[in-house]
Amino acid sequence: MKTNKLTYTFKSDLLFKMIFVKHPNLLKRLVSVLLKIPLESINEFELLNTEIPPEEIGKKFCRLDIQMDVDGKRVDLEIQVEDEGNYPERSMFYWARVFAASLPAGEDYFKLPKAIVISILGFNQFDCEEVHSEFAPLEVNRYELLSDKMRFHFFELKKLPSIDFIDTTNEEELWLALFNAETEEELDKLVEDGGEVMAQAVEAYKDVTAMDEFKILALRRDMQKHDEAQALGNAERKGAAVERMKWEGVVAEKDEVILEKDEALSKKDEALSKKDEVILNKETEIELLLEKIKRLENNKI
Length: 301
Description:
Elements: H1 13-22, H2 24-34, E1 45-47, H3 54-57, E2 66-70, E3 73-80, H4 87-101, E4 115-121, E5 132-135, E6 150-156, H5 171-180, H6 184-209, H7 212-300
Parallel strand pairs: 3-4, 4-6
Antiparallel strand pairs: 1-2, 2-3, 5-6
């Protein structure tokens, strides 16, 4: 069956942010599903970083996340496609930044809100079968919770069943399948099987990807990623060249030391040769002297 590959997927952090900034009702629904909070129980919902400055898109290593206030909780939503290493540490750094920034100067630490980092990952991070993993700080023997103000949620897309086998009654699987979708046919199937919410999400996707603003920013984003890859490639090549030069220098130094030792040995050999020559001359002189003494003794007789 012929498939039409999507030019942009929901795993694009730029598209991801623009869709949910422009359609906060869908973001509210997604957060309620991922955190298992009844939608109707959410009274306060506010996006805290709605801006996408065009000049920021052109900067190297720019990351786009979504930060929210959900009934007094600070929620940071991240999407990470490639495994660049140390993601758990990076997610803790994101949490610390959100947590620390949420306390106004002079306020009591008790007033720090619960901070939650949600990470949607395009790679396998944990050695388990579960798509969803939740972490909190626990005492290692009693499993006593240190604080309820730290939470990490990871959703690993590679562990999701293929779109033909997802549970269409499970809204979490539908949303994650949407992030996993790579073709127009998969989007159509989600609209067909996923009901009104998936239809709204796919319509929002089509609206945003048709916008000139998105196309310009996406072009800048692609150029930025190309520049990043080139910068990293150049750094690796320079690093390899520096390493090669370092080892060439080490080898040259060793060759110089060996040459100096060879020269010293050659001088020693030359000195020994001269000593051997002197000894030989002395031995010849002694032999001649002995012969002369012998002749003199014979003449006396």
